[in-house]
Design goal:
The protein is of the alpha/beta class and 452 residues long. It is 45% helix and 12% strand. The chain is globular, with a radius of gyration of 21 Å. Pyridoxal-5'-phosphate (PLP) is lined by residues 49-51, 77-78, 80-81, 123, 149, 151-152, 173, 175, 186.
C-alpha cells in the first residue's frame, strides 16, 4: 500500500475537540436529545461508555424483574459485553452465533430463552444488523426485553429501520473505532416508556461526568494527531493508547457522560449518515473484490440488512495459525487488519459459566478464522480494492510472504486466480485505478494528516 490504512471510521480533528469544549456544560443534554430524536426513542441517557450503558440497562431490569437472573448474549462478541453482565452480578448464558452474519443465531436464541431470562443482548457485529425482527418476536413471546447493542453499528438499518429502535433498550458507543466516533462514551436509548422511570432512577445514582477534564482533552488531542495514517503505525506501539486491546476491563465507576465528550458525540452524530454512506461504498467495493474468493467469506449483508461497515468482517477457510499469519502479513503492509476476538465469551477466565453452558462451535470457529479488514474513512474505492487484493495475496501466500506487493503485476495475477478467472477488461481497469491511487493516495494522506 502507498500509505498505512488504519481502522478509523470517522475523522475527528483538533478543531472538533475544541468546538466540543466550547459547547459548555449543557452539551450532554443536547446530545441526549439529538440521539433520542435521531432514533425516535422515548429517552436517551448519555453514559461514560457503551459497556457502562449495558450495565445500567441490566441494573434497571434487575429492579423490574428481580426473579429473573439470566442474560442471553452471543458467545462471539466484544468481551466488554460479557464483562458488563458479570459486573451486574447476573448469570450469562452464551448462545451460538450464525456463520452467515456473525450475530446471534435466532433459532439457538429461541431454544435458550425461558422464564428465567432477564434480557437478551443482541450486538450488531462489525456494523451489520442482527435479525432484530425475529429476535424481538422471540423476546416478546417469553417476556424478556431485547437490548440491542449497536456499539459497532450506529446508523445501520434492518429492513429500512435504524438499529437501536427494535429493542426495549439499545446501547451506542462513542469509542475511537466505532461508527459514531467520539472520545469514549456511550448512550442508553430507552424505547419502552414503562422503563424510562427505572432507568432514569439508575442514571441519577451515577456520578456526574462534569463538563471537561484538561488531562482527557489533552489525551484526545494527542489521539487526533496520532490517528493520521502515518502516525497510526507509531500509535499502535504506545501502551497508553490501548490500540487493539480487545479485552478491556469494565469501568470501575460508570458515570454520566461528561459534557465535552457529549459535545463530540453531537458532532459525530451530525456526520454519521455521510460517513456511513461513504464507508458502505468502500465496503461494497471490497466485498465485490473478494466475491468469488474461495477462502474468504464476507459477513452476509444482503437486504434487509444495511451494514455501516465499521469493518469488513470475514471468515477465512484456513487454520488459526494461517489466519494469524495473514493478519501479520497485512499488518506488515500497514493495513490494520485484526482478528476479533481471541476467545469465545465463556472461555475468558473472568467469566462464570451458567449451568448447562454448552460449547458454541460457530463462535469458536469465528474466533479461530475471523479477520476484520479496516474500512478507513480516508480511503477511496481503488484503495479499498487494493486492501481486499492484499488479503487475497496474503491468503495465497499462506500468510508467509509479508509485504506482498498488492499492486505488482505478479500479485494481480495471483489475486485474479483466487477469483477463478476475472475478466481481463476489469483487471485492466483495476490496474489503471491502482496506478492512479498511488498518486491520489499521497495527496489524500496529506489532507488526512491535517484533518484528523
Ligand atoms: C459489540 C460491543 N458492545 C459493547 C462495547 C462497549 O463499548 P465501549 O467501548 O464504549 O464501552 C463494544 C466496544 O468495546 C462493542 O464492540
Amino acid at each position: 500500500m502507498s500509505r498505512p490504512i488504519p481502522a478509523i471510521p470517522m475523522p475527528l480533528g483538533w478543531s472538533d475537540v475544541l468546538a466540543a469544549c466550547l459547547m459548555g456544560p449543557g452539551a450532554a443534554q443536547a446530545f441526549e436529545e439529538a440521539c433520542r430524536e435521531y432514533h425516535g426513542a422515548v429517552k436517551a441517557f448519555a453514559i461514560s461508555s457503551g459497556r457502562a450503558a449495558i450495565w445500567v440497562a441490566l441494573q434497571a431490569l434487575k429492579r423490574v424483574r428481580p426473579e429473573r437472573t439470566r442474560v442471553l448474549l452471543p458467545a462471539y462478541t466484544c468481551p466488554t459485553v460479557g464483562r458488563a453482565v458479570m459486573a451486574a452480578g447476573l448469570s450469562g448464558l452464551c448462545v451460538d452465533v450464525s456463520l452467515d452474519d456473525f450475530n446471534l443465531d435466532v433459532d439457538q436464541t429461541a431454544a435458550a430463552i425461558d422464564d428465567t431470562t432477564l434480557a437478551v443482548i443482541a450486538p450488531h457485529m462489525f456494523g451489520t444488523p442482527a435479525d432484530v425482527v425475529r429476535l424481538r418476536e422471540i423476546c416478546q413471546t417469553s417476556g424478556a426485553p431485547l437490548i440491542e447493542d449497536a456499539a459497532q453499528a450506529s446508523g445501520a438499518r434492518f429492513d429500512g429501520r435504524l438499529v437501536g429502535t427494535f429493542g426495549e433498550m439499545a446501547v451506542l458507543s462513542l469509542g475511537r473505532s466505532k461508527s459514531l466516533r467520539g472520545c469514549r462514551g456511550g448512550v442508553l436509548l430507552v424505547n419502552d416508556p414503562d422503563l424510562v422511570g427505572v432507568v432514569a432512577e439508575e442514571v441519577s445514582h451515577l456520578p456526574s461526568g462534569g463538563w471537561l477534564s484538561a488531562s482527557e482533552v489533552c489525551r484526545q488531542l494527542a489521539i487526533c494527531t496520532l490517528s493520521a495514517p502515518r502516525m497510526w503505525q507509531m500509535a499502535k506501539q504506545l501502551p497508553w493508547l490501548h490500540v487493539g486491546a480487545e479485552d478491556q476491563e469494565f469501568d470501575a465507576k460508570p458515570e454520566q457522560l461528561s459534557a465535552w465528550k457529549a459535545g463530540l458525540g453531537s458532532l459525530a452524530l451530525k456526520r454519521l449518515e455521510a460517513y456511513n454512506a461513504h464507508r458502505a461504498r468502500l465496503g461494497r467495493s471490497m466485498d465485490q473484490e473478494l466475491s468469488g474468493a474461495l477462502r474468504a467469506h464476507s459477513q452476509a449483508k444482503a437486504s434487509p440488512r444495511e451494514s455501516v461497515y465499521a469493518r469488513l468482517a470475514l471468515r477465512l477457510d484456513c487454520s488459526r495459525d494461517e489466519r494469524d499469519a495473514v493478519e501479520q502479513a497485512l499488518q506488515a503492509e500497514g493495513i490494520d487488519a485484526r482478528a476479533f476476538y481471541s476467545r469465545a465469551i465463556y472461555q475468558y477466565n473472568w467469566w462464570t459459566p451458567a449451568p448447562h453452558q454448552g460449547p458454541c462451535p460457530n463462535a469458536e470457529r469465528l474466533v479461530a478464522t475471523n479477520l476484520a479488514l479496516p474500512v478507513y474513512w480516508g480511503m477511496d474505492e481503488p484503495e479499498a480494492e487494493a486492501v481486499a487484493r492484499a488479503l487475497l495475496n496474503a491468503l495465497l501466500a499462506g500468510g508467509r510472504r509479508a509485504g506482498s506487493a498488492s499492486t505488482s503485476g505478479e500479485s494481480e495475477t495471483e489475486a485474479d486466480m483466487m477469483h477463478g478467472g476475472r475478466s481481463c477488461a476489469r483487471r485492466g481497469a483495476a490496474n489503471d485505478q491502482l496506478a492512479r491511487t498511488d498518486d491520489k493516495g499521497q495527496r489524500a494522506s496529506a489532507a488526512t494528516d491535517n484533518s484528523d
